[in-house]
Amino acid sequence: MKNKGVFDKKEKAMPEKIKGQRDVFISYKRENAAFVTRLYEELEHHNISAWVDLSKLHKEPGEKYQEKIRKAIESARFLLLIYTEREGCSIEGSDFIINKELAYAVEKKKEILFYPQDPINLNTSRIKPYIEKIQWLDTVETARYQLDTQESVSDEKRLSKLSEMVNRRDGFSVFEDENIFLIRVALQRKLGKITVFGNYKKLCGTGTDEFYGKDMLDICVVNKSLFIPVPSRLKPILEKLNFFREDKVKEVVRHLKMIKPDNDELRRQFVDFVENRSDIYPMPIVYGRLQHYLKQGKYCDIKLPGLDGFGVNDLIDVVSEMVACNFIEELESGKTMFNGAELGVYNISDNRTNNSEHHFTSIQLYYSDYFTFKCMTEMYHVLCSIDGGPFVIKNVQDICPLAPFLCSLGLGGYLAAYTDEGVSLMWTKRSSNISSGESWHFSYDETVSLLLDGAVDNEKHLIVGEENVVHIDTERLLYRALKEEVGATREYVDEDNHGIFEVGIIRSERLEVELISQAVLHLNSNIPLREQIKEMHNSANDGYLEISKIEFLPLRDRKSLIGRLLTPESYDVFFRMQARLKENVGKKVSVGSNTLVEDGCFFDDGANIGDYCSIHRNVYIGKNVRIGDNVKIQNNNSIYEGVILEDGVFVGTNVSFINDRYPRAILRDGRRVCRGDWVMEKTLVRYGASIGAGAIIMCGVTIGKWAMIGAGAVVLEDVPDDSVVVGNPARVIGKCKH
After folding, report:
1. pLDDT at residue number 174
2. Predicted confidence (pLDDT) per residue in 681-712, tens digit
3. Residue ranges of the chain with per-residue pLDDT less than 50
4. Theoretical Cys-Cys bridge with 724: which of 396, 426, 645, 708, CB 3.0 to 4.6 Å?
């Protein structure tokens, strides 16, 4: 399926019939159809379903047509009235719109959104009786002084530029009429829809609250490379602009001279990728795309060879000249950049199986550089502008065929902080200096480096193994990313809650494999979070270059993301973090899948809770408590250290578990009781047992399988299997039949 422009007129399909629930019903005058057509396309492109009749509106105002309109209004969440009052296009003169559409929507208690495309005189308007029912939307004039809206406009213009890189964008642009954009953003906010450019897919990873250990993830650089040379005629200019900084590359150059990596395989692989898809990327079409790009002034000195005989190697030569011109332009404008070393992704294998507790992921890398990375990114733009289909990656097996396009490996993730208000995630807006610039993104994002992240010996020299393989130290990589981007050193990071947990692929204006990680901050509770983060960020090496804004948002605060342009990986992983970072949870706590946890609960360090449990309001689960699968714990319970609940146990409300037979607050000499001054006795509740509300369970007892403890019972001794016990002290009164 060709990746055509979102405004391609040939593919336009307007709704004629109601097909299920819609987000919005658009009410307007027929004479305003051109504006509404563009609005409809903009909404549909951003996944907002609109009902609008562009072919028969008000031409058949019979009962059958009125019934159609009524059903459409009933099926929509909002009615959007596009108000016009200019000559020949007056809403005021339409009995049908006011009496049959607007009035019916009010009757059905639909929320009415009002967009005044023309000025309205409220004193004389027929809309006046409905004004209190209407929510007005911003126009270009009214939004002019609203900072959040203006920031959204800036973000959307950035989104448009990114889209143009990898899509054919023909016809109308939303920024020809910013009013259309403002309507769409208002609807996104009402509907809770978030703007993301591109997509992200998880390829492999660990469990919900696990991290890759050293024996689970191996990242190594194999003896292969992909280097596209800088065009000889432009190289002297880049040399003068200090693009080739010897201090940044001499160690890598020395290493490459020693190991002599193969540079033919990956280049040949790229040539084959294009040539083997001549039906998708015929050279005349590729040639035409290059002609389109070269119309830009900065490329005026680049000469295309003739079409006859034009091949993939010619494509590489032309694109390399384009990229060199881009670097010259940016360096002359004052930007700081150099041709640093990169590591591309050659292959990924994941040996995880559904029935195995342990799995092993291997990532093989190859040598490249920044110039090559930019060349292959531009090649990706050229080919995607024709057809993006071959770049769809569904699993790790699809990585190797696309290796030439994956010239870098990134590591990104979230910093999390526990405060009195709960768990918050650090979001950053990237600066315009980087590829994902002006987008809201992870807390930190770094590129994997051979010299900075490679495993070294005691003398800090790279360890080169058999077949010239070099391994990447993932712990070193993560702490470098934290330090360089946000200034978070080891002293700030929770030692039990940080690491890499996922590998994914980003497909936006670039194609890149990303290692996904997280780190929980260990902060001073007496100093405001913002002050501590500011101090950390000020000490970061790259933070001032790559980050323009920082915000800490509550873990589940999705609404704050609306109206911002997000990177696809940050948005996708945001939802994963809600399962990984549970609020009111201590260190090394394990909570199984599909377990319900209601408000007011706290799980202390080392607690282990199984799958499909129901933990209701105000439940405390103590240190190292073990709870099996399918356990139900009702409101207002404290399950203290030393208690084990096997699978299928039921605990009613206000049950008291005791773990100290002789509790004291102080000793006879007046000292406060400490941990070593009392003996914890363990309590075991066996499979399927049920404990009634208000029961008291003395420590050191075992409650048997399928036993039933009556409400208010005081259990001082072991309870046999299948027994029913009641009273104070509890006594057996029979066998449980259920």
Report:
1. 42
2. 999 999 999 999 999 999 999 999 999 999 99
3. 1-18, 56-58, 168-176, 353-355
4. 708
Q: How is the beta sheet containing 723-726 ordered, strand by strand?
A: 596-597, 614-615, 632-633, 650-651, 690-691, 708-709, 723-726, 731-735
Q: What is the pLDDT of residues 544-586, one digit of tens each?
A: 566 778 888 998 888 888 878 888 899 999 999 988 887 777 7
Q: Which amino acid is at 420?
A: D
pTM score, whole prediction = 0.70
Beta bridge partners of 620: 602, 638
Site of tokens 């949870």:
585
The whole-angstrom separation of Cα 25 and Cα 582 is: 40
The structure tokens listed for 110 are 């639909």
**pLDDT score of 367:** 97
Burial letters 589-613, b for 16+ CB under 10 A, else e: bbbbeebebeeebbbbebbbbbeeb
Query: Based on C-alpha coordinates, what's the Rg of the chain?
Result: 32
User: How far is it, in rounded angstroms, from Cα 228 to Cα 267?
Assistant: 9
H or E stretch at 503: strand 493-507
Between CA 96 and CA 66 the distance in angstroms is 9
Give how far Cα 560 sits from Cα of 33, 48, 131, 564, Å.
34, 19, 29, 8
Instruction: Determine which helix (DSSP H) or strand (DSSP E) holds 389, and give its type and residue range.
Output: none
How many angstroms separate the Cα of 339 from the Cα of each of 296, 371, 409, 411, 486? 24, 6, 16, 20, 24
158 Ramachandran zone, left/alpha/beta (phi>0; psi -120 to 50): alpha
Contact yes or no for 685/701 (Cβ under 8 A)? no
State residue 544's pLDDT score: 54
Contact of 566 with 553, CB cutoff 8 Å: no
**Tokens (6 digits) for 470:** 């070099």
Q: How far is CA 235 from CA 321, 322, 326, in A?
A: 10, 13, 13
Please write down the long-range contacts of 123-130, taking CB distance under 8 Å and 24 or more positions apart.
125/92, 126/92, 126/98, 127/81, 127/83, 127/91, 127/92, 127/98, 127/102, 130/102, 130/103, 130/106
Q: Are strands 608-609 and 590-591 parallel, antiparallel or unpaired?
A: parallel
Q: How far is CA 221 from the centre of its chain?
A: 28
Residue 223: CB partners within 8 Å, gap ≥ 6? Answer: 259, 260, 261, 262, 467, 468, 469
From the list 403, 378, 487, the residue with the least C-alpha distance to 443 is: 487
CB neighbours (10 Å) of residue 215?
A: 8
Task: With residue 348 as reference, give the H or E element that holds it.
Answer: strand 341-350
User: CA 182, 187, 193, 198: dihedral to nearest 10 degrees?
Assistant: -40
Q: How many whole angstroms separate alpha carbon 81 and alpha carbon 25?
A: 8
Give the type of residue at 181: F
- The DSSP 8-state label assigned to residue 7 in this structure reads T
